């Protein structure tokens, strides 16, 4: 919280934090490993996709919000990576003498793949989808889809685990260990929070992944559902619906669905605002999904 609030309040402070991250002992190894380090007011390839709109950048407070997003994201990724990798090297290692990933592997006794796998894990866990074709085509996809790398990062961890034994995804033990630890901790905290809040009478919840409101809570005496899964719930619901061929409505009724329609709805939910407005117009709907008069 502290780096975020300080960065929002003062650009010079944000710059100092960024400079400290960029010059820390393991910064070069992190960069060579592929760990993302984002910049302010930068093109989509080097900046945060949530803040890629040049028109909105003129709105007061927009750049402060960008700093409050980019700085803690960089620090979180860097700290997680450093805390693991520093223990791979002999005590007293002079990191300034390590000029390449090959050098890092030789000094640490680890493989280059272990470094790149770990960097990918922490990129994905902080909302930076690392699929190569997506990174290379982000500029093309951004007008159509809203924050595509973030959306992919919601499902990529499970692909990395499943594909690891096949020689793809997270194949090295250290990366798989961190991935499992983070996923178990995240989902464990989510279910515990939801259930404790429901038992205390604070909110309503739906623990059925086939349900319309799975992953969300609704405070008592309100009508708004709030997603607590960080954007993972829609994909969990899609998998459940594809498996069962049914869905549970907000009233609790189980009804059959067209699986291709479920896939289509999930894809269109990822549309950027303008393509979504166009689709709603073509479908004869307003922005909340009701039919237009």
Structural class: mainly alpha
Q: Tell me the β content.
A: 5-15%
* Spatial separation of the terminal alpha carbons: 46 Å
Gross morphology: globular
Summarize the main sheet. 3 strands, antiparallel
For the residues shown, what is the average pLDDT?
A: 85
- What string gives the helices and strands in order? HHHHHHHHHHHEEEHEEHH
Widest sheet: strand order? 1-2-3
Task: Please characterize this protein's 3D structure.
- It contains 14 helices and five strands.
- The longest helix is centred in the middle third of the chain and has 27 residues, at 173-199.
- 53% of the residues lie in helices and 5% in strands.
- Helix 1 runs antiparallel to helix 4 (62-85).
- With 293 residues, the chain is mainly alpha-helical.
- The protein has a three-stranded antiparallel sheet with strand order 1-2-3, covered by helices on one side. The chain has a two-stranded antiparallel sheet with strand order 4-5.
Topology:
Elements: H1 2-9, H2 11-22, H3 27-33, H4 62-85, H5 101-108, H6 112-125, H7 132-136, H8 138-141, H9 148-153, H10 156-163, H11 173-199, E1 203-205, E2 216-219, E3 226-227, H12 233-244, E4 246-248, E5 254-256, H13 259-268, H14 273-283
Antiparallel strand pairs: 1-2, 2-3, 4-5
Helix pairs in contact: 1-2, 1-4, 2-4, 3-6, 4-6, 6-11, 12-13
């Amino acid at each position: 919280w502290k780096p975020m609030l300080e960065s929002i309040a003062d650009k010079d402070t944000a710059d100092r934090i960024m400079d400290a991250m960029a010059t820390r002992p393991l910064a070069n190894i992190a960069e060579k490993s592929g760990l993302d380090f984002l910049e302010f007011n930068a093109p989509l390839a080097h900046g945060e996709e949530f803040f890629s709109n040049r028109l909105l950048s003129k709105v007061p407070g927009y750049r402060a919000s960008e700093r409050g997003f980019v700085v803690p994201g960089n620090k979180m990724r860097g700290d997680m990576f450093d805390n693991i990798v520093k223990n791979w090297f002999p005590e007293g290692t002079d990191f300034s003498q390590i000029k390449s990933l090959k050098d890092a592997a030789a000094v640490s006794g680890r493989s280059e793949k272990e470094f790149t796998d770990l960097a990918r894990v922490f990129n994905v866990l902080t909302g930076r989808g690392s699929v190569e074709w997506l990174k290379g085509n982000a500029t093309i996809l951004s007008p159509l889809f809203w924050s595509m790398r973030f959306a992919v990062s919601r499902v990529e961890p499970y692909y990395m685990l499943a594909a690891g034994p096949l020689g793809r995804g997270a194949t090295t033990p250290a990366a798989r260990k961190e991935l499992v630890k983070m996923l178990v901790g995240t989902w464990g905290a989510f279910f515990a929070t939801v259930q404790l809040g429901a038992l205390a009478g604070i909110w309503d919840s739906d623990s059925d992944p086939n349900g319309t409101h799975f992953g969300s809570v609704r405070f008592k005496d309100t009508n708004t559902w709030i997603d607590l899964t960080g954007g993972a719930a829609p994909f969990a619901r899609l998998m459940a619906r594809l498996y069962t061929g049914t869905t549970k409505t907000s009233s609790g009724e189980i009804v059959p669905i067209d699986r291709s329609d479920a896939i289509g709805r999930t894809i269109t939910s990822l549309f950027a605002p303008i393509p979504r407005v166009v689709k709603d117009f073509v479908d004869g709907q307003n922005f909340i999904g009701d039919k237009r008069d």
